[in-house]
Amino acid sequence: MSNADKHENLRLLEKTAGMSANQRLVVMLYALHPTDRSGAVLETAANLAKLVGMAAPVFSRTRKQVIEAGWLEETERIGHIKYYRLEPKRLGQNVVVPLRRAT
């Protein structure tokens, strides 16, 4: 992990200071877990819950709270499984591509 990555993770921890420990854990899990090209974590809630030692219902309830707080957004749905990514705006990423004038 590079120093830039470490600083980004510390900044994320600072931004989530008002959240519960479980909510912060879910945010950090999505921040650190491998993603696809769109930034989505392609893992089921049950597997993610197991990874952090949380009961699946607690993980799902906590993730719902994090979604409602605007930290996660749904990226795709395959069957009944929903996949999420961190909200780029929360990470301070510029998600708008500036328009260029046609010549």
UniProtKB/TrEMBL annotation:
The name of this protein is Replication initiation protein, RepL2
The organism that produces this protein has a lineage beginning with:
Bacteria, Bacillati, Actinomycetota, Actinomycetes, Kitasatosporales
